[in-house]
C-alpha cells in the first residue's frame, strides 16, 4: 500500500464548495420536483395517465445506468472536465425539457438529462473530500448531505408552487440560472486533477447496466402493470438477475474490471453501502407516502403539504450542522445508532396517525425523523470513506450514490404495493361489519341498516378513509422494523484510527 501524499491546501475552498453544492442541489431536486407537475404535463404533451410516467422512469433509468461508470470517465477525461461537462449538459437538457412539444421529445430529453446528471452527485462528494483535510471531512459531508437529503424534501413543494404560479415548464427552466452559476464557479476555481488512463471493461459495464436498468424499470413500472401478473415484470426481473449475476462473477474472476474489486475489501465501505441502502428506503419511501396521505386523508393543498413537511428539512439541517462538529469528537458508531433510534422513534409516532388528529404530530414526527436521518447520514458518509484509499474514492462515491438510489426505488415500490394491497384487505374486513344484521349499525344509523343508498355511501366513505389510514400505519410500522434491524450493523463499522493509519491519514489530490 502506497503512503498518501500530505494534504495540499486548496485555494478558494469556500467558493468551490458553494459552486459544487449548487450543481448537486440542482440535480437532486430533479428527482422529485417534476412529480407534482405530471398531471399538468399530460394535456400539454398529448400523453395519457399511463404513458406520462415515462417522464420520471426515463430519467431514473438513464441516471442509474450511467452512475457506476463515473469513476472510469473521470480517470479517462479528467474529474474536473467531467464535472463541468455534466453541469453544462444537465443545464442544457433541462432547458430542452422545458421546451418539449410532445411526450417523445420530453422522454428523449429526460434520458439525456439523466445521462449528464448521473456523475454530478458522486463527483461532488469526491471533490468535497479531496479539497478538505481529514479533520474537516465531517463538516464537508454535513454540507453535502444537507443538499442530498433536503433537496428531495423541498422538491415537490417547489414544483407545485412553480406549476401553480407560472407553468410546469418552469420546473425545468429554474435549472438554467443555477446551472450557469455552478458552471462559472467550478470553471473558475475547481482544481485540475491528473488523469489516470485505464482500459474500459465493456462487458462488465454492459452486464451491470442490464441489471440496473432492468431493475429500475421493474420497480418503476410494477405499479402500473400490476406487478407479477404482467409478463413485462417477469422479463425485467429475469434480465436484472442475469445482469447482476454475470457482473458479480465477472468482477470476481475477470481482470481490469471497470470497478476495482479491492474496494469491497474495505469493511467500513461495504457496511456503509448497506446502511445507505436502508437510508434510501426510509428517506424517499416516507416522502412518497406523506404527501398523498396529507392530500387524500386531510385534504391539504400542495403548498400546505410542503409547509407541513418543511420542518423535516429543518430538523435535518440542524442535525447536520451539529453532527459536522461532533463527528470528530464522538464515536461515529454512537452517532449512527442514535440517529437510527431517533428515526425508529419518529416512525413509531407516525404509526399513531389518525384521520381525526391535527397536524402537530405530523410536524413533530417529521422533525425527529429529520434529526435522526441527519445523525446517520453524515458520520456514515464520513466513516465509509475514512479507511478507503483515495484512488478508489470516485468509484466508491458512484457506488454509494447508486446503492442509495436503488434503495430509494425499492423502498418506494414496497410501501406503494403494501399500501394498495392492505387498503383492499382492510376495506374488505371493515365493510364486512356493515350489515343489517349488525345491531351496532342499527343503533348508529337505522337508515344504513335499512339499506338507504345515501347512508350506505357515507359509511363506505368512512370505511375507505379508515382502510387507507390503517394501511399507512402498517407501512410506517414496517419501515420502523427495517430501521431497528439495521442498528446491529453499526457494530461492523470500525473507527478510522483502528484501521491502518497510512491508508486514511491524509487526504490529497490523486
TrEMBL record:
Gene3D superfamilies cross-referenced by the UniProt entry: MFS general substrate transporter like domains, Multidrug resistance protein D
Top-level taxon of the source organism: Bacteria
GO cellular component: plasma membrane
Claim: Transmembrane helix is one of the keywords in the record: yes
Xref: Pfam families: MFS_1
Membrane-topology descriptor: Multi-pass membrane protein
Domain (Major facilitator superfamily (MFS) profile) ranges: 16-498
Segments crossing the lipid bilayer: 15-39, 51-70, 82-101, 107-129, 141-162, 168-190, 202-219, 231-249, 269-290, 302-323, 330-348, 360-385, 397-419, 476-493
GO molecular function, one term: transmembrane transporter activity
PROSITE patterns for the chain: MFS, SUGAR_TRANSPORT_1
First-listed, main subcellular location of the protein, grouped into a coarse class: membrane
Keyword Glycoprotein: no
Keyword set, alphabetical order: Cell membrane, Membrane, Transmembrane, Transmembrane helix, Transport
Subcellular location: Cell membrane
NCBIfam families: efflux_EmrB (TIGR00711)
Family: Belongs to the major facilitator superfamily. EmrB family.
UniProt-recorded name of the protein: MFS transporter, DHA2 family, multidrug resistance protein
Organism the protein comes from: Mesorhizobium australicum
Taxon lineage: Bacteria, Pseudomonadati, Pseudomonadota, Alphaproteobacteria, Hyphomicrobiales
